[in-house]
């Protein structure tokens, strides 16, 4: 369901609107946020220099450390009395980043997310089961307000307490489920454990995101649950979920909400724009935000763009699924690889389930990488729970060869019995970095 006319507007119409909004945003940040005013002066740009949408490249980039350096509210463009909400990152790798919203920001965010849920197949009047975490994380409340805006009956279950989630799905009969892909897998497996066939629920559509996932993971979730699973992307610094959303018709790239965000993809080394279709770092500029506007914010996420028209009828730019974050990229003996690429090939192995972890340790000057995987429950039963040494070494060798041939990296593979890898209730932890610990020992 297409909710807004901008989704099918011509490129000229979209860019005209973007230019007007960009000019307003640049003017506002110059007036209201000393950080931007000073940075623009340093770069020798003034708000009057933005005469076409391409002039955006004259503006300096903003990075996460700019947010941390102005913790908590230094980059806000409104007074406290105009704010109605803040969200924040967990701050596991430094000070949390704090973002704020005015009433209008919440209204536009709700409309953006309503559009996203409709793009994924949601319809007014049906139930939406929202298993994203509620709280400072933007997932829970972001999807919640969007779902209500669309007119869906919203079940604010949040993450965790999986058995209750299953009972609610059984009783309320939602058609849409929203959660991280890793948590949905967890829910589906628990249904199987309880003797329920996950394909027999009322669910038809999934709105999955907040962490990188692969096409193979999509296939696994769609097969297990008998649903269409679509990718939702966003980050709190830009607004939260809904910055882009895949359509259930084509499932081929995520439509960017271009009336609210201007997207660029740049080479993270040279910071120059890369051509459509080529991978680079996603950079977003907000076009309508009041409380926390961002100018050319470097997301650290790697993806590519396409301007081709989509079979769903939308004309908005689409981004590819996010391969991973620059800082999650592993460099193993000089070869770059993202955990999601490893996932992609790992899931071609039938005996393995899509729960895995990559453990990094330092041995002298060498990075040691171990891939921990676990075998499928059914398969485990078929061998009477006897994971013999011979079998483990055969399976780990097979996986080692697949990863080596496809990703060109040598990774030690450790095969475990079912339920050995920790399960997530939100964002999955795929990489466990023990390099610092081993250095300290
Ligand atoms: O994860 C917002 C969100 C909530 C998106 C619910 C989708 C669904 P943050 O906690 O600020 O916000 O984390 C943002 O998560 O920079 C990406 O690295 C990653 N991420 C988000 N969505 C996707 C996705 C929310 N669909 C960071 N695919 C981003 C891959 C994603 N990575």
TrEMBL record:
Residues of the AMP-dependent synthetase/ligase domain: 125-285
Annotated ranges, domain AMP-dependent ligase C-terminal: 334-434
Domain of life according to the entry: Bacteria
Pathway: Aromatic compound metabolism; phenylacetate degradation
Enzyme Commission number: 6.2.1.30
Family annotation (CDD domains): PaaK (cd05913)
Classification via InterPro entries: Adenylate-forming_Reductase (IPR051414), AMP-bd_C_sf (IPR045851), AMP-dep_Lig_C (IPR028154), AMP-dep_synth/lig_dom (IPR000873), ANL_N_sf (IPR042099), PA_CoA_ligase (IPR011880)
Broad enzyme group: ligase
Keywords of the record: Ligase, Nucleotide-binding
Family named by the database record: Belongs to the phenylacetyl-CoA ligase family.
Function comment: Catalyzes the activation of phenylacetic acid (PA) to phenylacetyl-CoA (PA-CoA).
Protein name, as recorded: Phenylacetate-coenzyme A ligase
Organism of origin: Bacillus suaedaesalsae
